[in-house]
Amino acid sequence: METARAAWRRLEPVHAMIYFVPEGRRRYADLGLSGRAGYFTSRSAAFGRASAELVISTFYNFNPDVVRQAVDGAWDATTPQQVLDARYAAAGEALRRAGIHGLPNFDEVLALTRRAAEAACEHAQGRPLFAAHAALPWPQEPVVQLWHAQTLLREFRGDGHVACLLSEGVGGLEALVLHAATGEVPVDFLKASRAWPEEEWAGTQERLRTRGLLDGDSLSPEGALLRRHIEDRTDRLALPAYAVLGDADCERLAELASPFGRAVVEAGLLHLG
Questions:
Q1: In the chain, at which residue ranges do the beta strands (DSSP E only) sit?
Q2: Which of 56, 86, 252, 269 sits at a 20 to 30 Å CA gap from 49?
Q3: From CA 44, how far away is CA 121, in angstroms rounded?
Q4: Would you say which domain of life the source belongs to (predicted)?
Q5: Alpha-carbon gap, residue 179 to 219, rounded angstroms
Q6: What does the alpha-carbon distance between residue 238 and residue 5 come to, in Å, rounded to a whole number?
Q7: pTM over 0.90
Q8: Using CA of residue 145, residue 4, residue 180, residue 168, what is the dihedral sign?
Q9: CA-CA distance, 181 to 175, in Å (whole number)?
């Protein structure tokens, strides 16, 4: 389980950069999508003309008012296929800028990641955001294939994570506040990216303190235990994707993935702005 998590985490920058790179913003703007509309429509375009309510439900932890403002009317400006085409083109352009395609062991990393992603497609039930992306055709260009494969693995894991949160009675904003309390991600980033009003954030903190999950602004022992349980359960739900590789190939992917994640970071593809 730890090896599978390492394989996913080390390669995750290859997927995650699409939310930060200027290549994406430029292409979405060319379609008439500005600001948050580019993010919400590009990630949900696999559904077709996704409503704001569908995005709120499947993305889980964003301020619903902000989602509605971004999505309502967006599909009057463009089509899901145009947005998908822009997203894949931006992914390929950005990853080539980082030199991903020229790294040693590229073909092996692609083969292993694609095998895991294709195995995940056999377990799509109950994972709506993943299933929508799994129904998309595989790109032809290898570097974009790698991005697509890691995107599938990210959404496969993400849908499982949402299921865990729901089963533990942890709402979207509660999940953010608990995440912030770990200190793993800057609080200001979580607040800005998910766009919850300060008073709602503070009110949620107080409710979590009442539940015994926060001690001040930090996790209580009970909160830390709950977070660990959710993360462990998320890892277990992600295992069907990586089980097909077996222990040796999963360890091999975890070993080979690190330079790919570093290349994305060192190229500045995860920088805001």
A1: 214-215, 218-219
A2: 269
A3: 18
A4: Bacteria
A5: 9
A6: 8
A7: yes
A8: positive
A9: 10
List the one residue out of 9, 19, 15, 17 whose CA is nearest residue 40.
Answer: 19
What is the gyration radius of the CA atoms in the chain, in angstroms?
A: 18
Q: How many CB atoms lie within 10 A of CB 244?
A: 16
Q: pLDDT higher for 105 or 272?
A: 105
C-beta separation of 120 from 129 below 8 A: no
Element (H, E) at 71: helix 64-71
CB atoms within 10 A of CB 75: 18
Q: What angle do the packed helices 221-243 and 142-167 form, to 10 degrees?
A: 140
Q: Which residue in 128, 148, 126, 125 sits closest to 136, CA to CA?
A: 148
Phi, psi of 219 (to 5 degrees): -65, 135
Q: Tokens standing for 163?
A: 């299921």
**Cβ of 210: how many Cβ atoms within 10 Å?**
9
Q: Phi first, then psi: give them for residue 215, nearest 5 degrees.
A: -120, 100
Q: Which two tokens stand for residue 71?
A: 């999505």
Q: 117, 109 in Cβ contact below 8 A? A: no
The H-assigned helical ranges of 72-136 are: 80-97, 106-120, 128-134
CB atoms within 10 A of CB 208: 22
- CA–CA dist 204, 181 (Å, integer): 12
Question: What does the alpha-carbon distance between residue 176 and residue 180 come to, in Å, rounded to a whole number?
Answer: 6
One-letter amino acid at 171 equals G
Contact 170, 230 (CB under 8 A): yes
